[in-house]
Amino acid sequence: MELRLKSALTALSAALLLFAGVAPPLAAEDAPIYSLKDRFSPVVAQNGMVASQEAVATRVGVEILKKGGNAVDAAIATGFALAVTLPRAGNLGGGGFMLIHLNETGETRALDYREKAPAAAERDMFLGPDGEPDKDKSRFSGLAVGVPGTVAGFAEAYEKHGGGTLTWADLIAPAIDLAENGITVTPGLSGALTAAAGRLTRDPATAAIFYKHGLIPYLPGEILRQPDLAATLRLIAEQGADGFYKGVTAEKIAAKVQAAGGGMTVDDLASYEPVWRAPITGTYRGFEVASMPPPSSGGVHIVQILNMLESFPIREFGLNSADSIHVMAEAMRRAYADRSKFLGDPDFIDIPVQGLTSAAYARALAETIRMDAATPSDDVRPGDPFPYESNETTHFSVVDKDGNAVSNTYTLNFSYGAGLTADGTGVLLNNELDDFSAKPGVPNAYGLIGGEANAVEGNKRPLSSMSPTMVFRDGSLFLVTGSPGGSRIITTTLQIVLNVIDHGMNIAEATAAPRIHNQWLPDEIRVEEGLSPDTVRLLEARGHKIEEKNAMGSTQSIMKIGGMLAGASDPRRTGALTEGY
Ligand code: DON
């Protein structure tokens, strides 16, 4: 990271403004890069920046930026590299969402490359003989595997918005090199492989890649080579998406899914297409927010919750005070109740997006929030907007020197997905179809309830919580963020936005602050370590059940302030890196 003196002085003067006490709402030019009061400082750079969960992949993206690639090029190269270096979540065999901001036109576009159910999928396919959901079927069998979207998504993003100076093969070359010549196993990778060994060594194809003699996890410092994955990547580099969706790779994927009890065919793969969708937009205290539309629930509910919270003086309440946690939890509860009823694949159902994201509906919901008492979730029903812990998804953010930006969240669902690898391809297969509602009213792996709107159907996309998000100030890029964390993705991303806008925190402080989460059912506020005992008592006195559990999310964020970039990788998970130049 190079920081010239002049820019350092600009950054410092922006930071010093903080000491004067910045009144809300923040103006972008007053927003903090860092101040001498801060305990956590962001990474600062002038030109471009990449924040991802894995250091080697971040550096791949930064190199692409330095070579003249734009944010989309760098995001694609980082995404392919993560498929090699962060196999628990980075992927070719999964899917996700990419939000792209084009500085020249000011346009922000949302690319949906979420997995689809194969055409043969049936509504009751995850039920056992007793009519109840069979978790093995929806999580670890071939039936769990959705038609992957990642490669098609990256190809589409490159075709429409690649920078034009680097070839598609240029963007995949670093991943091929890493797969072929090997990566140095990090403590994070070794730990994840050890934790998942029971599940992953059941499939000989997976075991042969990630475990020595098919049994022993690689140790930190050892070299992991993935030659089959390198060969698959080479086909993709040479043939584009066809190298994955047609021919030998597609045949091997379909064969593996069928051998594991699923119904995916080569036709399902050949007919997969990503979809451009209009982002969900809203405003919060003068800032503009853009996030992922359905089949993600993220954008709708982030905007809905922000709309409700706008009625409350969050900044005066103070970070993680009983008052602010109370109103946040109440707003979250109401939004997740609506999620359970109204959200699903927009190509199959009508979703009242306008109602759910309208300020008037949010005001009506906010009026039902009492300051002195929690509303039991049993008393909250989806409104009327017409009038596990095996976590891995991964997010990365990129901003280039021209102000273009990418916010990308993609996943295999569980760590290493279904744990199945298509033999001979090195491609781990997702278990994304567990995100469908196997049976109305029965919670999925993240405790999320769904209904008709998210029932299984052939060619349908399962409802997601992944929420790649951007915030703008007067149309100028201000924040790029997102997170893994299953059902907690929405509330984690929301709190980055609140911490920056309401609490005036720099992005590193905003990232490190303890998080809370309420998802309607179970009726509890899940909190991270770090809340004061008297705050917990005050919340309990209002009727909240407080459950302290594991840390939530792993955000990768970049802010643009006064011409400078300030980024932060979440300290909650090891191995992440934000780097700029
Ligand atoms: O799309 C979704 O909402 C889930 N499949 C995401 C899973 C996830 O985030 C796992 N954990 N970090």
UniProtKB/TrEMBL annotation:
Source organism, top-level taxon: Bacteria
Active site per database record: T393
Record-linked PANTHER family: GLUTATHIONE HYDROLASE, GLUTATHIONE HYDROLASE PROENZYME
Keywords: Acyltransferase, Glutathione biosynthesis, Hydrolase, Signal, Transferase, Zymogen
Molecular function (Gene Ontology), one example: leukotriene C4 gamma-glutamyl transferase activity
Signal sequence annotation: 1-27
Pfam families per record: G_glu_transpept (PF01019)
Gene3D superfamilies: 1.10.246.130, 3.60.20.40
Binding locations of L-glutamate: R114, T411, L412, N413, D435, S464, S465, G486
Catalyzed reactions per annotation: an S-substituted glutathione + H2O = an S-substituted L-cysteinylglycine + L-glutamate; glutathione + H2O = L-cysteinylglycine + L-glutamate; an N-terminal (5-L-glutamyl)-[peptide] + an alpha-amino acid = 5-L-glutamyl amino acid + an N-terminal L-alpha-aminoacyl-[peptide]
Post-translational modification: Cleaved by autocatalysis into a large and a small subunit.
Protein name: Glutathione hydrolase proenzyme
Entry similarity comment: Belongs to the gamma-glutamyltransferase family.
Quaternary assembly: This enzyme consists of two polypeptide chains, which are synthesized in precursor form from a single polypeptide.
Species, as recorded: Roseibium aggregatum
InterPro entries from the UniProt entry: GGT_bact, GGT_CS, GGT_lsub, GGT_peptidase, GGT_ssub_C, Ntn_hydrolases_N
GO biological process, one term: glutathione catabolic process
Pathways per UniProt: Sulfur metabolism; glutathione metabolism
Documented EC number(s): 2.3.2.2, 3.4.19.13
